[in-house]
Amino acid sequence: MTMQFIITVLLSQILWVVAIPAGAADVEYSISTNVTHYTRYRTLANGTTISENATIHDGRFSENWQYNDTECKWVMSYMPYMSSECTEYCEADSYNWGYRYHRLRYHIKLSANGQDVATWCNNFKARMMYNCGVGNPDFFNCNSGRAQEWLGLRTWIVDASIGQVVQKIGINLRFDFSPWWQPRDAMHDCVRSAIREATCAGTIFRSGLRCIPTMYISPSGSPEFDESYVPPASRCLYNSEVPPEAT
């Protein structure tokens, strides 16, 4: 799976289009304040507890929200394709309270499509909280901290307005579910939905979009485009058992 993703990303880097650059930012979202620390909070219909002060008028915490802002016109005209990799593992090193109370560590990598990184990360976090029915994650790094911007996710384009080649940066994101998460599918469905909803409407994911266990290897002969469900690992893994880049 990882090798196939890298090859796809490398191929995408040779995409040359005429475009106007969208803003890109290095974003830090390492959060220590839990949503329950706010003096005012409310519970949504899906059970998510959110800060009333911050989200009472926030449309992202509602059904059927999909990002389709002004920048998406450029994205869909010039870079409507994206490569994605979404992996997770239950960390056996954390806690000792049973399967559901170990940290569930997610790692998401998306090739550049021209969207503003800060906006995408904010939108993803909001949709992930809503879709998955969880509060503010206590660990969330997007292109910084333990998830530094990865050069391999960049895409080069030609900016006709300045007559130069410019780069668009991709998204490297790590975040945790702690302490609660659903062992049935390790939150695969709700995280996948949040990725799609934070990405411009109409974007095509080259190899499909799904979340899989970190150690999963696609069977020989699997189709290049694959969105089939893969169940989570049968047990939690110690950090020494997973590749260093996944921890």
Give a written overview of the molecule:
This protein has helices at residues 2-12, 52-55, 71-78, 117-132, 188-198; strands at 41-43, 49-51, 81-82, 84-91, 103-110, 140-142, 155-159, 164-168, 171-177, 204-205, 211-213. It has 247 residues and is an alpha+beta fold. The longest helix has 16 residues, at 117-132.
Instruction: List low-pLDDT spans.
Output: 13-41, 50-54
The radius of gyration computed from the alpha-carbon positions, rounded to a whole number of angstroms, is: 18 Å
Strand count, sense and closure of the main sheet? 5 strands, mixed
Q: What sort of overall outline do the alpha carbons produce when their principal axes are compared?
A: globular
User: Could you give the order of strands across the largest sheet?
Assistant: 6-9-5-4-11
Tell me the strand percentage band.
15-25%
Tell me, rounded to a whole number, the average pLDDT: 79
* Alpha-beta content class: alpha+beta
Classify the helix fraction into a percent range: 10-25%
What sequence of helices (H) and strands (E) makes up the elements?
HEEHHEEEHEEEEHEE
Number of helices: 5
Tell me the distance between the termini.
17 Å
Report the strand count: 11
